[in-house]
Amino acid sequence: MAKSNGKSRKIYMDYAASAEPNPGSIHELGLKAKKQLDGARRSVADVLGARPAEIIFTSGGTESNNMAIQGAVLGAKLPKLPHIVTTNIEHPSVLETCKMLEKRKLAEISIVPVESNGIVDPKKIKKEIKKNTVLVSVMYANNEIGTIQPIKEIAKKIRHYRKRRDLTPLPLSLARRGVGERCFPLFHTDAVQAVNYLDLNVERLGVDMLSLSGSKLKGAGRVGVLYKRKSVPLAPIFSGGDQEGALRPGTENLPAILKFFTALVKAHKNKEKEAKRLKKIQEYFFYKLEHTDILKDVGMFLNGDRQERLPNNVSITLPNIPSDLLVIELSARGIMASAKSACKAGDGKSSHVIKAINPKIKDTDGSLRFSLGRKTTKRDIDETVKALSQILKKLKKWYTPTPILKLEK
Amino acid sequence: MAKSNGKSRKIYMDYAASAEPNPGSIHELGLKAKKQLDGARRSVADVLGARPAEIIFTSGGTESNNMAIQGAVLGAKLPKLPHIVTTNIEHPSVLETCKMLEKRKLAEISIVPVESNGIVDPKKIKKEIKKNTVLVSVMYANNEIGTIQPIKEIAKKIRHYRKRRDLTPLPLSLARRGVGERCFPLFHTDAVQAVNYLDLNVERLGVDMLSLSGSKLKGAGRVGVLYKRKSVPLAPIFSGGDQEGALRPGTENLPAILKFFTALVKAHKNKEKEAKRLKKIQEYFFYKLEHTDILKDVGMFLNGDRQERLPNNVSITLPNIPSDLLVIELSARGIMASAKSACKAGDGKSSHVIKAINPKIKDTDGSLRFSLGRKTTKRDIDETVKALSQILKKLKKWYTPTPILKLEK
Asked: pTM of the prediction?
């Protein structure tokens, strides 16, 4: 034993594996890292009501969504071109991925429009499902307008379809892997925005795949998770090592994973209480917005359903005032809000989500998303609404609003 | 301005973008993050002798390699099936990715075997290049046996080929993007293991793409980099937001990127000195191994070229003793070494690299990789060789080595 002053000393001669110990190594420090990784995986599985082997750690929500969608299409191996059903308010990492697959002639897609309240009708999803549909992907809660989608109802309709579908025999390659004839369509949900406030139990939700991201969890590392039901036939989008069931090669980001599971467990524990607290602040925010004269004057309205939305989301439209200008004016007053998804910020166009719920919207109509968090107080709301009033008073000189034209919702 | 006690107070209402400020947001905290990201990108570009826009941040080396290889194949849009030339000692994230593309009928591949010293002959690479070759991918330094590949010589041969190739007109889609007729084959190098010790200047190396990983840099975050020369037509493998020139959507991992560039700049500054210091320790290690009787008795030999190797790599074969047993015995004595790439550890088989340089090797012949780092001292070497002697004395009772059969190299 390598000793130094009577105490056992470790000699690290595995710098090429990783400058820090790596769960893929079989020496003592590697095994210790592996044990930590296994513990984190178990905790995440517990929160989701899943099995540890069904948890895949990724680099983030974008990768999780790409893995679910590209992986389902590449892994399906159907005799026909795979078909995907999704909605028109998905995050770009879902919607653009579907479009990319279509462009590359690897899949055909059906995009179901949501209703004017920003919620999709499960019956319309069901109507689009056909024999070659391998995947339905519907987000749990929208990132811009916060609307919560009826995941359980959609899951029920999919289960119903699977049970009644014509039993066209699957290729032997799938049958061998124990994939039942009735596994398609798979049901994936992007739960990135739901993580802090909604039930994540995959059994209760009835989903086959679910994406999470550490970036929406306070104190979590920059990692993502894809829950994948054991029987789901997914093809990897990366090749390399055998990590994460060979679905996600590359050294696991252990430090971030450890932070992630700690933050997830904490959020899970505080979920109900925090949702209740924010719901009250949200109601207060709505009340203040609706009772401020200048906001009424410019024709402000709420984007998305007032009830079926995340308790931390307040999204409004202010006709005739560009979003980016509003964000910058608010920022100058110390208030950090956003116009739309940060992934698409600053391009000067209306977001695809706002357009989806309000086809009459123009690029010059501004939308603002205020997303609240654990530090948000009523006082913040007062100051925000006050700042917004000041900005509108200032901007009124330049932008002549069309007189209280409430856009049809 | 939101104020509190006369001091300006920030109200963060962008939790849905990210629990922490995000370089994609256009408000003040978002812009600050963007500025930090730009600074990091500039520093990385400086170390590589590249332009900032040519630096793509990824989740790690595995993703960088997948992006380069899959992206080149998908982005080439040639009338014929794209062809890749690579070697038989690449990291799995290169070799397995090439094989996956072949299996999915998206590319054909030629795998050039290295010589018995673990170094590829540039002439053999050149011989494999043909009209539809879109990519040559050769690693800079091997992760298991540390051998350094003749990147500059290969680059020269590729340039020569490009200049003399038949001028078959490229599809308009490429010509429009300003891709010259002579851009193929592209030349990619996986420089993950080279980062601490070798010259990374892309102009001097003559490469079009180069992969790096934070996991091999002390104190760097878990991120990767792909350098991509501006004119290289790469298709994205992920879809989503517009980050990283739309080639790598997803919120940038800013905390890790900041750690990465700091560590890279530091390693770059200390490169020569540290390489010189380790070269001496490595020589001492070789000497000790070669002058220990029991090691000679069991037929130990060095894997890979003795001179043209990373200064931190000592890789040996000990015939008839399984690798994993050696790693575990060393670990029990406080010494963390590895048998092969951690990405493939623990599966009980000889590595593809060891087999590539020594086709006669059996799965029961053990290989050990000692990779040295900034904390390694001569004393560590003394203790390692001593521990190795003890282990061999112990194991001799169970494993009867074939009498000093030096395997043909």
From this structure: 0.89
CB contact under 8 A, B240 and A383: no
Give the SS3 label for residue B96: helix
State the Cα–Cα distance between residues B25 and B256, nearest whole angstrom: 18
Least Cα distance to A125 among A76, A84, A179 occurs for A84
How many angstroms separate the CA atoms of B44 and B345, rounded? 31
Say yes or no: A389 contacts chain B, CB-CB below 8 A. Answer: no
Q: Cα distance from B106 to chain A (closest Cα, Å)?
A: 12
Optimal mutation site among A336, A344, A378, interface B, most CBs of chain B within 10 A: A336
CB contact under 8 A, B19 and A371: no
Residue B112's DSSP bridge partners are: B87
Cα separation of A211 and A59, whole Å? Answer: 11
Q: Write down the catalytic residue from B343, B346, B378, B382.
A: B343
Q: What is the DSSP letter of B301?
A: E
Distance CA A149, CA A171 (A): 33
Asked whether the bond before B185 is cis by omega within 30 degrees of 0, the reply is: yes
- Could you list the pLDDT tens digit for every one of the 409 residues in chain A? 444 444 578 899 988 887 667 788 888 888 899 999 999 999 999 999 999 999 999 999 999 999 999 999 999 888 889 999 999 999 999 999 999 999 999 999 999 999 999 999 999 999 999 989 999 999 999 999 999 999 999 999 999 998 876 555 555 555 554 455 468 999 999 999 999 999 999 999 999 999 999 988 988 878 999 999 998 999 999 888 888 888 888 888 899 999 999 999 999 999 999 999 999 999 999 999 999 999 988 889 999 999 999 999 999 999 888 888 899 999 999 999 998 755 566 566 778 999 999 988 888 888 999 999 989 999 999 999 999 999 999 887 666 655 544 444 4
Tokens of A337: 């809000």
Using a CB-CB cut-off of 8 Å, the residues of chain B touching A56 are none
Which A-chain residues 135-154 have CB contacts (< 8 A) with chain B? Answer: 143-144, 146
Domains in chain B with CATH codes: 12-266 (3.40.640.10), 271-395 (3.90.1150.10)
Q: Touching check for A303 and chain B: CB below 8 Å?
A: no
Helix (H, G, I), strand (E, B) or coil at A65: helix
Which residues of A are known catalytic residues?
Answer: 343
Interface of A with B in 36-95 (CB under 8 A): 58-63, 65-66, 74, 91-93
